[in-house]
Design goal:
The chain is an alpha+beta fold and 266 residues long. It has a single domain (7-257), classed as Creatinase/methionine aminopeptidase superfamily (Creatine Amidinohydrolase), CATH 3.90.230. The protein has five helices and 15 strands. The protein has helices spanning 7-30, 37-50, 117-134, 144-156, 248-257; strands spanning 54-55, 67-71, 74-76, 90-99, 102-111, 160-161, 167-169, 176-180, 197-200, 203-205, 211-213, 220-222, 228-230, 233-238, 241-244. A hairpin with a 2-residue loop joins β14 (233-238) and β15. α1 (7-30) crosses α2 (37-50), α1 runs parallel beside α5 and α3 packs antiparallel against α4.
């Protein structure tokens, strides 16, 4: 069942989403080669607690950490660890919180220092894919138009679009109906109405779309070992436009100021 939100509920989701954006901005302030993703997990946990929220991911179906940190060929669900990050790594930080009984859930991919141009291009295009999809997140449009726009932009640039993991509805539960694939044909399926809230999240691979699942069942990697990028926004469907509830501007300002992060893909 699809749950449409009241305007008041949308604003509560915005509070949760903006809290995540602020947490990601705090991570951007300190992120550099030599840090570990476990240090990022600790920072995020403290920030979430200090702002009166609960981490959505911790203990979700047994997940043992506060955030997901996916490095290089990890597509999603990367687990924080004590391995130092290196210059040229890409790191997706995915955070979920609950505040005022409503979830926020979004992700951002960072480039540490100097990365190959093909990786910089992949990061740029994946972010573009997100906004291509959001352009179609409007009332009285088909949800598949979001999916089709993401797939078209990614594949036109020669990249693989992950099929097995998708975006989703968002509200009192972290994963609500409907699912939002990153591939599909236009003008099919669900016709969206105002105040549907979605987490739209393209996962795009430098190589093929194929993935492999680790033995623990959590960490998802590209099958060919090439990098993967993941961006995610929380979005409310409105007539004629999408209302983006998360706020990348908070992250991008810090990212551009941090000499350890590469922001040339803007």
């Amino acid at each position: 069942m699809i749950v449409y939100k009241t305007n008041e509920e949308v604003e509560l989701i915005r509070i949760s989403a903006t809290l995540i954006s602020s947490a990601l901005a705090e991570i951007a302030k300190v992120l550099k080669p030599g840090m570990t993703t476990m240090e990022l997990d600790k920072l995020a946990a403290e920030y979430i607690a200090d702002h009166g929220a609960i981490p959505s991911f911790l203990n979700y179906e047994g997940y043992p950490h506060h955030i997901c940190t996916s490095v290089n060929d990890v597509v999603v669900h990367g687990m924080p660890n004590d391995k130092p990050l290196r210059d040229g790594d890409i790191v997706t930080v995915d955070i979920g919180v609950i505040k005022n009984e409503f979830h926020g859930d979004h992700a951002y991919t960072f480039i540490l220092g100097d990365a190959p141009q093909e990786v910089i291009d992949l990061v740029r295009v994946t972010k573009e894919c997100l906004y291509e999809g959001i352009n179609h997140a409007v009332a009285d449009s088909y949800l598949s138009n979001i999916s089709s726009a993401i797939q078209r932009h990614a594949e036109n640039n020669g990249y693989g679009v992950v099929r097995e993991y998708v975006g989703h509805g968002l509200g009192r539960s972290m994963h609500e109906h409907p699912q939002v694939p990153n591939f599909g044909r236009r003008n099919e399926g669900i016709l969206m109405k105002e105040n549907l809230v979605l987490a739209i999240e393209p996962m795009i691979n430098l190589g093929t779309k194929e993935i492999k699942v680790s033995k623990d069942g959590w960490i998802i990697r590209t099958a060919d070992g090439k990098p993967s990028v993941h961006f995610e926004h929380d979005v409310c469907i409105k007539p004629g436009h999408a209302l983006i509830l998360s706020n990348y501007a908070l992250i991008e300002i810090v990212e551009k100021a941090n000499i350890n992060l590469n922001s040339t893909y803007y």
